[in-house]
Amino acid sequence: MKPVDLILLRDQLLAAIREDTGSGDVTSRSTIDSEWTAVARYVTKQDLIVSGLPVVEELARLCDAGLRFRSLSADGDAVPANTVLAEVQGNAHSILTLERTSLNFLQRLSGIATATAEYVARVSGTVARIVDTRKTVPGLRLLDKYAVRCGGGLNHRFGLFDGVLIKNNHLVFHPGVAEAVQAARQRLGHLARIEVEVTNPRELDEAIAGGADVILLDNHTPRETRTAVLSVSGRVPLESSGGISLENVRDYADAGVDYVSVGALTHSVTGVDIHLQVRPTRTGH
To answer: Could you give the CA distance from residue 102 to residue 237 in angstroms, rounded to a whole number?
Structure first.
C-alpha cells in the first residue's frame, strides 16, 4: 500500500492544530505546571482497521518536536478492542494540545478503513472491487482516499484532472452518449481511458458504440444491473454507483459488475472509538 505523502498535507495539519489551540490551551496552562511530562497511549475501544498513525506522528512533531512517538500497530492492521495503537511521550502540555486533533484524524480515517473493509468482505468471492468517490472532506481527500486503501478498497480518480468520467451534466452538451465519448477521444487521443455514466439501456448501447473504455451504471437496480452485464457480455468493464449500501452491495456484486463505487465510505463515515490514556511521569523539579 502506497504511503500517504504528509509533505503535501503539512499546511492542512498545521491549520487543524491552530484551529483547536488558538492562542493556547488555557485549561492545561491553568491546572498543570509546565514542567510536567507524561506518556499517553492511543487505545481502541472496538474492533477496527487502523488508518492514520503516520498522520498522528506528524501532528505530534508539529505540536512539539520534542515529543517522542512510537507506533505499536500499522495502518491496515485489523485489531481488536483494547489494542494500544501507539504511544507518545514528552511534555504534558504538548500531549494535551495534540489530543483532540490527533484523535479526530485517527478516528475518522480508521472509521473509513473499517467501513471499507466491511464492504470488501461483503463482496468477497465475486469479481467486484470496492472503489471510492470524490465525496470527501474538502482539503483532506488525500487522507480519505488513503484510508480507503487501508481498508482494502481501490481509489477512483483523485480529481477532475486525472481521469475522464462523462456524466449527465456533460451529456447535455451533446446529442447523445456516443457523440460525447467520441468528442473526448478526438481531443485526448487513443491512449486516454474514458468512462461514461449511463442511466438506461439505450445510453448503454450508445456508450459501447462510441468506444467507451468503462461504463458506469448509474442508479440501476440489481436486476437492471444483471441485464446490463449480460448485454455487455464482457466487452467493457462495468461499474455500479448510486444507492449502494452494506445491505445491497452483495446484490450488485453478484450481478457481475467489475467495480462498485460507494460514496458513503467517505461522505457519511462514522468515526471509530479510540481514546487517549494519559499518565503523568515526572514534574521535572
So the answer is: 40
Which CATH number is correct for 125-267, 3.40.50.300, 3.40.1280.10, 3.20.20.70, 3.40.30.10?
Answer: 3.20.20.70
Active site residue 197: yes
- Which residue in 25, 77, 118, 135 is the catalytic one? 135
Euclidean distance between CA atoms 8 and 11, whole angstroms? 8
The grid coordinates of residue 70 equal 512510537
pLDDT tens by residue, 181-229: 999 999 999 999 999 999 999 999 999 999 999 999 999 999 999 999 9
Catalytic residue among 57, 99, 197, 239: 197
Kindly report, residue by residue over 223-265, the tens digit of the pLDDT.
999 999 999 999 999 999 999 999 999 999 999 999 999 999 9
- Please confirm, yes or no, whether 47 is among the known catalytic residues: no
Q: Is the dihedral of CA 142, 145, 151, 155 positive or negative?
A: negative
Catalytic residue flag (residue 203): no
Q: Which of 245, 233, 238 is nearest to 217 (CA)?
A: 238
Catalytic residue check, 45: no
- For residue 281, the SS3 value is strand
